[in-house]
Amino acid sequence: MVKILSDPWWKSTAYFVWWIFTRIGAPMMAILLPVLVVYGFISADPASLAPLNLKRSEVALFVGYAGGEACLYGHPCNTYQQHSYIVIPRVFSNGATISVNDNNGVVTVTEDNGDALITIALWLLCVYGLWYFWVRSIFKRRIQSAS
Q1: 125 alpha-carbon distance from chain centroid
Q2: 22 in helix, strand or coil?
Q3: For the segment 5-24, what is each residue's pLDDT rounded down to a tens digit?
Q4: What is the pTM of this model?
Q5: Beta-bridge partners for 69
């Protein structure tokens, strides 16, 4: 256990970051990534799915979104959107996450080989964190209080 007041600042900061990640960040990702995939099925964006050139047997899982607007004084605003997908069964051959970038109407598609493996591994790690720090500890407390 870290003694926040008596330990060096870097040790207590590392403990705080670890606690935030394991108790808040990991459970959020474990729950919200499947929610994002379901949202992608319910509210699919045809403009970002078209450049993927999906075949009949392929399914695009929506796993990420980024976007915004960059405005400089005296210049028109630059808007951009990025949708990231894992395309099944294409992912089994190259492990790629496919990103569709829309930058002021100019659409580009980038395929990042291996990123899907990292995404899935990180999600599985977060699922384990959710189980270990939340579900398991709740069951342990119930068992201890029952006996």
Answers
A1: 12
A2: helix
A3: 777 888 888 888 888 888 88
A4: 0.77
A5: 79
